[in-house]
Amino acid sequence: MNRFELELTGKKFLNDNTAHLNFRIISPEKYSFQAGQFLRLHFQQNDQEVFRSYSIATIFPQEHCVLEDISMAVSWVEGGLATGVLSSLEHGQSVPASGPFGRFCLPDTDFKRYFLIATGTGVTPYRAMLNELELRLQKGAEVYVVMGAQRQNGLLYEQDFLKMAGQYPGFNYVACLSREQREEPTNYDQSGYVQQYLQSIEFNEDSDITFLCGNPDMIDEAFALLKEKGLPVAQIRREKYISPKPRPVRA
Ligand SMILES: Cc1cc2nc3c(=O)[nH]c(=O)nc-3n(C[C@H](O)[C@H](O)[C@H](O)COP(=O)(O)OP(=O)(O)OC[C@H]3O[C@@H](n4cnc5c(N)ncnc54)[C@H](O)[C@@H]3O)c2cc1C
Asked: Which residue numbers in the chain have pLDDT < 50?
């Protein structure tokens, strides 16, 4: 496991509850990452080492690459340990981290349609994959980013996805708003949860692949739905945003 320090170099608010944080990786070594992976930040609590995971939000220049700077989107959780540390972190201060982790990455094999489904900060792995997705679009694939949020301000990184949709007819961005619609609705808005949108799609078990990321309840419900619709489990990739258990602090 690679351990390093992440030094805060920038912070920008994406909405009143979510910050886009930029870090420099402080380490004598350079590490290679893959779009879709996550890092763990390390904290201490009651003599225990505690981790919190964060997906890499950086748009990767290519699918695998050495990164010296890394960004992530963090939603504040009331009373949260990581929230407390990260929300008060100043430029130049650092947090211990490790990684990369995870296999929530695009497969080597090509599919005809990619459904990338998210709620909240769960959309960040798809932002990381944008350049790799572009290569697949150029080969004729279709991409659907299906983003769920309660209201418009939860549609994180929407402009990045709309930019790609403007360049490629095969790239579709769908905004599922469950509580409050936009003042000026768009033709890519859907009312309701992402599950309702997925219900309306006819999936092809031979040529579609789906990714689910974010809220665990959404993932469980969407997973059951996609399975019911006939997609093989291997074509329903999942990344649930839950906190791992603490463990004793390393000597
Ligand atoms: C693989 C992976 C990737 C992840 N990527 C991201 C990411 O990119 N961005 C991001 O913001 N988070 C991400 N998470 C979640 C993140 O690791 C933390 O769980 C989250 O930031 C809360 O940490 P905390 O220490 O502030 O709160 P905690 O101290 O863990 O929790 C404080 C209280 O809030 C509750 N709580 C925890 N999370 C939530 C929530 N989401 N909504 C409501 N209540 C909650 C807890 O049950 C607890 O009662 C990811 C998790 C995993 C497993």
From this structure: 251
Closest alpha carbon to 36 in 57, 67, 66: 57
DSSP three-state, residue 219: helix
Q: How far does CA 232 lie from the centroid of its chain?
A: 22
Interatomic CA distance for residues 41 and 29, integer angstroms: 18
Which residues line ligand 1 at a C-beta cut-off of 6 Å? 38, 52-55, 72-75, 77, 79-83, 121, 124, 239, 241-243
Centroid of ligand 1 to alpha carbon of 73 (angstroms): 12
Ligand 1 pocket check: which of 20, 101, 241 to mutate, most ligand atoms within 8 Å of Cβ?
241
Nearest C-alpha to atom 43 of ligand 1 is from which residue?
77
Read off the tokens for 115: 């459904």
Res 200: pLDDT: 96
Q: Tell me, what's the pLDDT at 251?
A: 46
Sequence-distant (6+) residues with CB within 8 A of 232 are 205
As a whole number of angstroms, the distance between CA 205 and CA 187 comes to 28
Delineate the domains of the chain, giving CATH numbers in brackets. 3-102 (2.40.30.10), 113-240 (3.40.50.80)
The reported pTM is 0.95
pLDDT value at residue 250? 52
CB-CB contact of 212 with 238 (8 Å):
yes
Contact 148, 178 (CB under 8 A): yes
Q: Does the bond joining 100 to the residue before it have cis omega, within 30 degrees of 0?
A: yes
Quick one: angle between helices 130-138 and 158-167, nearest 10?
20
In the chain, which residue ranges form alpha helices assigned H by DSSP?
Answer: 81-88, 124-128, 130-138, 158-167, 194-199, 216-228
How many angstroms separate the CA atoms of 124 and 174, rounded?
A: 15
